[in-house]
Amino acid sequence: MGKQKDIIILGIESSCDDTAAAIIRNEVIISNEVSGQAIHMAYGGVVPELASRAHQQNIIPVVDLAIKNAGISVRDISAVAFTRGPGLLGSLLVGTSFAKGFSLARNIPLIEVNHLQGHVLAHFIQEKTVEKKNPEFPFLCLLVSGGNSQIIIVRDYLDIEVIGQTIDDAAGEAFDKCAKVMGLPYPGGPLIDKLAKGGNPMAYVFAKPRIPRLDYSFSGLKTSFLYFIRDRIAENPDFIEEHKADLCASLQETIIQVLMTKVKLAAKETGIRTIAVAGGVSANSGLREALINAAEKHNWVMHIPPFKFTTDNAAMIAITGYYKFLKGEFASHDAVPYSRVTIK
Ligand code: KG4
Is the pTM of this model over 0.90? Predict the structure, then answer.
């Protein structure tokens, strides 16, 4: 029997403010490029219209670079996978239209990928030079990003169920919105993480909502934080500057406690002890520490992906595309992006 042909997938990600392209050969990533959009910093958040324009400018150079850095020819690509949603519609349209054009021009299959499923399957990306163990099925995944916050049971690559989620703001949004209240630039999450290191996490207490079962909420925390700051500033205009580290540490601690309470409950209720974390907020050092401590205490097997695969990237779209390719799950050329959707 001859050697099986390699499966090479081009992944495209354009759901928010990163234009990304990656190439995967079987499960091994051979190039992973991303072009961020600094333009949004001046506005304190992502401006959808500007994001779409920047994607339009960036997409061809980014794909070109991904192909060059992979050391392959366009003729080697077996299929093109793209993020269909959720995300900003104008941004998604750029990646979707590019992927359709590429699929038609090369006469190769088109594969649609749910961005959230991509975050989860990022755990299966292999790197050429790094030995790593994949999570064993079934596992629980805490997906915490700027747009999403969910607890998911992963039974198999393409068999995924959301068992708990935020009923309002995502965890990253809670970080970013509270950072804005303190006058920090966007995205505030990484800055809060950095400043929290010099502060006391018990200095202040903010509202922790009581939401039944595995769902949770962050909008009450945001309001409580806003009112707290407003009242303190009325007494002392320099309050934020003088207490920034304590504010950041206490806020971060509250967000972590909300998430950890629900992860522990999910592990207890499902009896699953393999726990993974995904999404941009999984870069948070306090959250990582809390997960590692809980893993030790409750005998969990913890999986924390490398930072480059936690934030938005196209490698996660390519790996999801690979598993869909193996199952023959292809998209039709009339597929339209969706801005809101959960994982089915
Ligand atoms: O997954 P991601 O890159 O983008 C999407 O939301 O799709 O996540 C970005 C979010 C932002 O809200 C950012 O503030 C947050 O992740 N983030 C962090 C940290 N690094 C990124 N939040 C807290 N601590 C961090 N170290």
Answer: yes
